[in-house]
Design goal:
This protein is an alpha/beta fold and about 170 residues long. Helix content is about 35%, strand content about 15%. Helix 3 runs parallel beside helix 5. InterPro entries: CblAdoTrfase_CobA, P-loop_NTPase.
């Protein structure tokens, strides 16, 4: 089955993480590939629990957090290279036969933002072993991309404290 958690609201990655934890609790073999989340200055706190559960994860992406706590927008060639490396890792995991569930976090955002071409992503997804449950998350520029998915959930922002200037907080946003 293919799942997509899309939209501009907060909670897509958190929902995917929850499913990964649930699967681990049920004895399923899961893994996660995190796209566009590489960072040298902090570790995403969800990786701590994944390590404790023995769930493998792979983080790809260039530094986006600035020294002053800001965020670097835009796309560089290095960003694209990192996304390609993540896609290759996803392909290896999807075709290995070793996993029941694979989370591809922010892969839809990478396709929407030009770090990956959707046709490349689609080609990799098509190679997956038939028993693998695949979860793709992110903002989705073209919903036709997920038309053939078995489950699509839209997370819509109604209001967000970031709009009032609240900054990202450890344990809540990362």
């Amino acid at each position: 089955m293919r799942h997509a958690y899309i939209g501009d609201g907060k909670g897509k990655s958190t929902a995917a993480l929850g499913l990964l934890i649930r699967a681990a609790g049920a004895g399923l073999r899961g893994a996660a590939v995190y796209f566009d989340k590489g960072c040298q200055t902090y570790r995403h706190h969800e990786t701590v629990i994944l390590e404790k559960l023995g769930v493998p994860f792979y983080i790809f992406g260039c530094e986006r957090m600035t020294a002053g706590g800001g965020f670097r927008f835009g796309v560089t060639e290095d960003d694209r290279r990192e996304a390609q490396a993540g896609l290759r890792q996803a392909e290896n995991l999807l075709t290995s036969g070793s996993f029941d569930l694979l989370v591809l976090d922010e892969i839809l955002t990478c396709a929407s933002g030009g770090l990956l071409e959707w046709r490349e992503v689609e080609a990799v997804l098509a190679k997956a072993s038939s028993h693998v449950e695949i979860v793709c998350t992110g903002r989705c520029r073209d919903e036709a991309w997920v038309a053939g998915f078995d489950l699509v959930s839209r997370v819509t922002k109604v209001r967000h404290y970031f709009d009032r200037g609240v900054t990202a907080r450890p344990g809540i946003e990362y």
